[in-house]
Amino acid sequence: xxxxxxxxxxxxxxxxxxxxxxxxxxxxxxxxxxxxxxxxxxxxxxxxxxxxxxxxxxxxxxxxxxxxxxxxxxxxxxxxxxxxxxxxxxxxxxxxxxxxxxxxxxxxxxxxxxxxxxxxxxxxxxxxxxxxxxxxxxxxxxxxxxxxxxxxxxxxxxxxxxxxxxxxxxxxxxxxxxxxxxxxxxxxxxxxxxxxxxxxxxxxxxxxxxxxxxxxxxxxxxxxxxxxxxxxxxxxxxxxxxxxxxxxxxxxxxxxxxxxxxxxxxxxxxxxxxxxxxxxxxxxxxxxxxxxxxxxxxxxxxxxxxxxxxxxxxxxxxxxxxxxxxxxxxxxxxxxxxxxxxxxxxxxxxxxxxxxxxxxxxxxxxxxxxxxxxxxxxxxxxxxxxxxxxxxxxxxxxxxxxxxxxxxxxxxxxxxxxxxxxxxxxxxxxxxxxxxxxxxxxxxxxxxxxxxxxxxxxxxxxxxxxxxxxxxxxxxxxxxxxxxxxxxxxxxxxxxxxxxxxxxxxxxxxxx
Length: 512
Description:
The chain has 18 helices and 24 strands. The chain is of the alpha+beta class.
């Protein structure tokens, strides 16, 4: 066994993960800890900030215990996590607002409508290279300014999840570059937070709270303090690298080192991305951000329309199957896989709109099943959920392909959903592209660990590290005979969502 190890921490939409990797990129051990989601109001998504830190400490302790590795052999640690949302911190480096806000939060959606109405996004998109959504830092800070002025007065630092964890580990304040570039606040040409952008978004007062120190992804940003060492089991003095935006971590862990590959992440968010030397700067394009390879930008289309919708269905309608599987020592998703396969691919006319936690079609759209008849069973509805999530990904991929110059050779898939053979074949058949599933249980944590591998000098850059770390464990080839069916059903899905667009805002009167 190698004598050098790297630890990566990953903060996702539902849990905190940690992984330890050796210098050849082998995954030695992983650990997972759940974090409580708080929903004070409809559309609000928060977590207790202290619980987030404690969950990360527990995950690191667990992974050290499982691996049995001497902490003295840990070359360094880095974190990845969801970008955007906000962590508001006071001068004492304590929470100014007790909870952190997650990127799927919708409280600020009216500010998006305002920006669109007044043309603000169009005036800054040439500099920011991205659209704005409700859970992004800018609209959330505008909301805070209008609704929580006392919190604003108390706040000294606006941080992202990765920056907060790095602060807790090292005591140092800074913002990591890939996260900083995804806030619709940075000029991606100058790589600076510019006053004119903040003025356009009505958040000029918040600019002094943005850290002046911009931390490179693989740069050493500090070392583990004595206090953090006691909490995590790491040794004091262990180097802490900048870390990564989670979409960037998954991309590099999937081996996106050229523009021919596409990466899809099935998680809380529907993430669909590729890398390009030239950023896309269009008002209706989701996001270009700075990649961990200096010559590239990450081009991304995404929304909160992915596997969290499947999780909801399982939690609410699969309790009986869950008990049966547990009695057999199996997982409820084993039952899901069997039910999915029990329904022929062309045997269900049901469409599911995967908009439980936000949308990629309208700020006000809702989720729902459409086309149910008396013959349909739970299995048909479950297949519709899988398909609806697929169609949302296809909607994003269609937009990506419009600007992608190089031919796409394959799609690399990460996230919990890639464990479903039936779902992966569905993606291959609908996209008519090979689906490649990388090895490794926690690719986000692996991407973070690669920051340590590069930052410690074990590899000269991320391209070299990815060549060693990224391995493909399974490939799904498309079935040409199924292409026409999925394309027709996807066409109906798009037509339906477009027709419903004028209805959704009326639905708001029913909210309580």
